[in-house]
Amino acid sequence: MKRNLPLLITFLVGTLIIFAEFIPHKPFGNLSGGLETWFMIISGFAILLGQLNLIKVNTIKISRKAPNWQYYIICIVSFAAMVIAGILWGTRDQTGILKNSQGVVSWLGLKPFDYFFKYFFENLSATMFSLLAFFVASASYRAFRARSLESTLLLIAAVIVMLGRTTIGSWLTGWVPESLTYLHIPQVAQFVIKYFQTTGQRAIMICAGLGIVGSSVRIILGIERSYLGGK
Amino acid sequence: MKKIILLFFLIFIFSLPLLSNEISVSAFDEPNDDGSAIVLEWEYDLVDVQSIIIEKSKDNSTFIEIVRLPITDTNFTDEENIETGTTYHYKISFIDFDGALLASKTISAKATAQWFNTSKIPLLLMLLIVGIAILYFIYHARKGKKLYIRRIAGLDTIGEAVGRATELGKPILFVPGIGDLDNIQTLAGLNILGHLAQKVAQYDSTIHVPVSRSMVLSTAREIVKESYLKVGRPDAFNPDSVYYLTDDQFGYVAGVDGIIIREKPAATFYLGAFYAESLILAETGHESGAIQIAGTAMPAQIPFFVAACDYTLIGEELFAASAYLSQDPQQLGCLKGQDVGKAIIMVTIVAGIILEIFGIHFLKDFLAS
């Protein structure tokens, strides 16, 4: 029963969703929207589960003095600060327990939760995202080494596209006469993106789409049960 | 004189339809919907029109303005408070620059709900063909027919990666992406986690599964627990090996990068839905010297994984992984069915190209419908 009930629910809901895709009549038409709302509600409750787990895992590491345990204190303190700031003074759109937050707002310029979010969290997020630029450079360096015919072709295509997307591309081939505009680097780069890249991406998307159909069929029919922890 | 009067009379009579045709208005039920919309379309041959006012009434006597449109608009879909089966009356008025009424026309329509969306016939057809093919091959697989599946190097390496981690005494890191449980890529990743966790339990190695969604947390933990149970080592299961970091994309990246730097895993697996964080994770893993296996169906992230990881499961390979690892005949049958779908798509594309070259647009129009 512990296994069969989830499988039965999966089968019924999965089949219903497939039928609903082709039936606009009520109640089928808005069925998937309703189920998505259910999912949002369940995942809203589940957030509490995640937060409790975060506290538990970090507290254990601090209490056991695990390597680098000081960092886990920072995590717990940051988490607690955001929760307390949110509960006491609320956020930009919500009022907190202390309904009048004018004093703290006149001091910080924002409610504490929004202040932390804007001046700590957003900057930290942006810093992490900025790492991408450096990692793109290091990954490109490895990927574009001309070791074989394929990687050489990749290198040539990459150089053309990179030049074509900058002003250098236009500058390098600006002298080419009007009748040969198809040789302009930006035009060639556009050609590579439009035909080679799009073709490859579409092939991946079509195959992934079929993979999704196959996976869905396996899950709906109960053939695939790994997500339930095996057979 | 009589002839002149008769001529003018005839001109007047014959011009009446022309005069009335200055405005042509139609109202009809929105096709393929649940009976909650009415479409209005109009054409006019008036000069000095500045705006078009649409008024609505239920009883055909009291009209309330619902929208004022520019002259460039030629249709309007009313979706506000439309009840299925009720007739609504619309007055479409054409207003000049001085705000004076140039012409108006009243028209009625009833919204009805449809039981089948005819615009999705191509999708239904494709679904039926692929579905039947999948069921056909599953049936034959059940009967014991041997089905060939090509090698997927990334999946063959799982055992090797776990063995290496055990030898080095280092953990294994599994990242299920930042998608929630409603994303099929996350489910595909979690399916692989089940197989991986079994290997980890068999080799008595350790695994870290940091997640970014609470729902994934409970599912992943259950999967790992069941895997340990399956190989007869429930005592070795550590519930804290699957843990939540944060829902935030870059907060999660920071957390996982920290784990990679501190724990120095021998093998890292990135299997699921990934966005801009893919390369940050994969490059950090590469720098730490881990053997890396990635898989996603996000076309924009695949090049990053290919550049930074040792093995990459591209698109469909991620979804085929579970079948490949389990070698379950029914699941392999399902993969064969998918291949039939792929063959049909290839034939359709070639046929479409040939037909378009010859100026026959039937197939394109049918599929685009």
Task: Give your account of this protein's structure.
The complex is a heterodimer of chains A (231) and B (369). Chain A is mainly alpha-helical. Helices cover 74% and strands 0% of the residues of chain A. Chain A is extended, with a radius of gyration of 27 Å. Chain B is of the alpha/beta class. In chain B, 47% of the residues lie in helices and 23% in strands. Chain B has 11 helices and 13 strands. Chain B has a 6-stranded parallel sheet with strand order 10-9-8-11-12-13, with helices on both faces. Chain B has a 4-stranded antiparallel sheet with strand order 4-3-6-7, with no helix packed on it. In chain B, strands 1-2-5 form a 3-stranded antiparallel sheet, with no helix packed on it. At the A-B interface, helix 1, helix 2, helix 5 and helix 8 of A face helix 2, helix 4, helix 5, helix 6 and helix 7 of B.
